[in-house]
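note to self — DONT lose this again. spent like an hour looking for the file last time. sequence + predicted structure for the chain T wanted, 218 res
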Amino acid sequence: MTMLPTPIRVVIVDDHAIFRSGLKADLAQDIVVLAEAATVEQAIAAVTAEQPDVVLLDVHLPGGRGQGGREVIAGCAALLANTKFLALSVSDSAEDVVSVIRAGARGYVTKSISGAEISDAVRRVAGGDAVFSPRLAGFVLDAFGTAEVAVEDELDKLSARELEVMRLIARGYSYKEVAKALFISIKTVESHVSAVLRKLQLSSRHELTRWAADRRLL
């Protein structure tokens, strides 16, 4: 007896009802649409309620603070471990692609692709892959390849112990909590924090937290 594939549960977010209807009809049978949304607020509510495997997300949406798809992802940040976002847009601008990927989307495809291609992209994103329309992948490599090299260069300045202290301080641990976790004195923690701030050219632990968060090191 042939086992049927486990359905992939999705939410479609787009402000054009006709497009949502057409997309829903074009998706493969193993992809189940749980809900649809047309605005930033509706999208956050639907994704939070349904907690789908994949969200098919338009980049430009009405509502919210005017940040569109990026704002939807930010509003669902607590779900990113299990819910993947696949941007689906008419826009192929580098700015839109990089912006939504920085926010946490796992892929970006244009609306010109076929239903079969979108279905395949949904399956791949649900499986943990990053998926991009061929022309758009270069934008991501250009933006994040340079950024990764820069982050590695910055982290190379720190010793192994300084890295441990940096991560804990950036996550909000107190000096006393860091000392207890790493079995070192508070004075040693203070010394390591001073060295980290100096090497990274930062002026406070608040700047350090922001620095680490921007580089997804938390």
